[in-house]
Amino acid sequence: xxxxxxxxxxxxxxRCAVMGVLNVTPxxxxxxxxxxxxxxxxAHAHAIWRRGAxxxxxxxxxxxxxxxxxxxxxxxxxxxPVIRTLAAEGIVLxxxxxRAAVAAAAVEAGARVINDVSxxxxxxxxxxxxxxxGVPWILMHWRGHSRDMTALATYDDVVxxxxxxxxxxxxxxxxxxxxxDAVVLDPGLGFAKLAEHDWALLHGLDAVRSxxxxxxxxxxxxxxxxxxxxxxxxxxxxxxxxxxATAAVSALAASAGAWGVRVHxxxxxxxxxxxxxxxRSGRARG
Length: 286
Fold this sequence. Notes:
8 strands
């Protein structure tokens, strides 16, 4: 597999990028239903854009563990009106989808990035859509749809296996005509992973970066953080109480060379990556 040449197609803010999550769904694990209406979705998008998000990731289908799929028409009806409106205002958007038809329609509506949690495995037409569109394609490590992912969380060496499986997805993407500078990798924290797998991947992020492509880290509010922060009775902390831990992961990911972090609370993680950049460079920020 040939190494990438960087990603000039991606936002380049001079620090780890912050991708803000906009779930236009009724059942996402952290904020399902809060932004299902077009008005609420637009208001939230404007708020996180003003706070400093570099990209807003718009998704119309929940990928939480155990969730059931929606049909393509429902997914399109949720995301397209939001994408059209925000893109017309100059906001940089990605579309969070595993369907080629949804990705193609979203790019036509103004999305500038395809964020595919299946890494191209869920829809064989996605690679052609990404190649024809010429936009960045985020390839996440994936082993199956949400309803099956827990059973698929079996590894002998999770860091090596995730790296090798992502390498195979990159090879397939390049063979389909996707530009090298359009490929971004995501180790897929929480997707067919147990908590120990997630921590191992964060610790071993250099192994994914060694493939030569920008890396996106999506740890925001996920189960492994809730379990880390469990109370004395062993009850995981709910998603709303995981923001400080998320920001800590954002700072560490930035220090480890991640291209970006995908988060719900843009402000906290933006502060975190700014601290990480100042720490790395040794410059005071004022």
